[in-house]
Amino acid sequence: MIKTLLIILLLLLLSVTAHASVSRISNGTVTVGVELNCGGTISELWLDGTNIVNNYDCTGRQVQAAAYDGIGSYDSCAGCTGNWEWNPVQGGDRHGAGSVVLEHATTANSIYIKTRPYEWFPDNKGGGPGAPVPSDVFIEQWITFVSIDPRAVKVRWKITHFGTDNHLLSTQELPAVYVNGEYNRLVRYTGNAPWTNGATTVLSTVQQGVNYHTAEKWQAFVNNQDKGLTVYVPGQYSWLVGFQGTNAADQFNYFTPFYVYAFGPGSVMDDEVYLFIGDYAAARNMVYQLEKSFVDKTPPFGFLDSPVPGQSLIGNVTVSGWAFDNVAMSHVEILLDDAVVGIATYGQARPDVAAVSPGAPINTGYFYALDTSKYTGAHVITARAIDSVGNASSRSVSVNINVKPPNSVIISLNNIKAPNPVIISLNNNTAIKAPNPVMITVK
Fold this sequence. Notes:
With 443 residues, the protein is mainly beta. The chain is built from three helices and 32 strands. The chain folds into three domains: 19-291, Distorted Sandwich (Beta-galactosidase, Chain A, domain 5); 301-401, Immunoglobulin-like, CATH 2.60.40.10; 406-443, no CATH class. 8% of the residues lie in helices and 45% in strands. The strands form seven sheets. The chain has a nine-stranded antiparallel β-sheet, with helices on one face. Strands 5, 12, 15, 18, 19 and 20 form a six-stranded antiparallel β-sheet that branches. A five-stranded mixed β-sheet has the order 23-30-29-25-26, with no helix packed on it.
């Protein structure tokens, strides 16, 4: 009898030791665990005695946050080609180095984590295997249970950029969601009447590089019993991306909602996400309740098409691009060197944008006629999109205005009709003197 008790105690001790790096909380219905060896990522969400979360590796899976740069270059294989720029990842880097937890506090019903995440790809940033590179952000994470639903967990992520550089508007992983292979059915609402309990869409194959429409800001990976993980991101746009791993030794399902932010000097991204464990239909009902108290923090998403970087401008120039918001747009301001010069005309049809942005309106284009005659030299043109509650995002381009080429004369002929070619004679014995070559503009 004593020997049996000793064996049981030994097994319990081994179990505790094996999971000593995981900090857990439970409300009797849901158990949540975070991995302290890898930035405090959410490594456990238990359902009917089974952990839904995929933990194939410590740094790149689980449920976690990561940041990206809108002008950064990233290959399609998480850095396998060496082409991977700014990317703080809560869990750690691609070589398996886990981000160090700087602060950690666990109570009966909450977990707090603070980490300085590593760059996912250290190899082109002065590091490499065994030499992780700390990024220029802090990630803080608060996990609490939702009092009105025992199956719900609220996660607040706060990413503070203490760097002095700019990382332009980009989709951010808030969060990246990895679940195990059996939860391979993607469920969401894709109709034209959101928040009316319309029929959902179920998809068994999720392909990389495809934007999947989700009109109610929630998405779920579930098993054949319709149970799994539902993720509600109040600030997301109306689509998500994802893919599946089907290797027998590593079966997983991944998605991340389309959520945008730009990290400038000292900027702070601070938002909440809700995780529901269990039946997705019940989770959807709770999402409807939570949506009633939604506060919009998400900036508009868009792009400045013209002019292009480095372009030389003269005369009246059209500044154009596109922008739309997850809720409602207000207007687009045009700035020259941080000073507003006008308001763009907004609402041009851009079916090309709508075609790759499920749920986005068609009339998202804008244009503005900029008179450059008052300016000369190097300048920065900015388009600032502002939504109905004041959230804003910007796109900028550096240009040269009214800069004459060296050793040349620019002659403009306005409203002159003439057969081609036009011949202008410059006689050095007259009052017109100019070095060669001569540039001629006929209008």
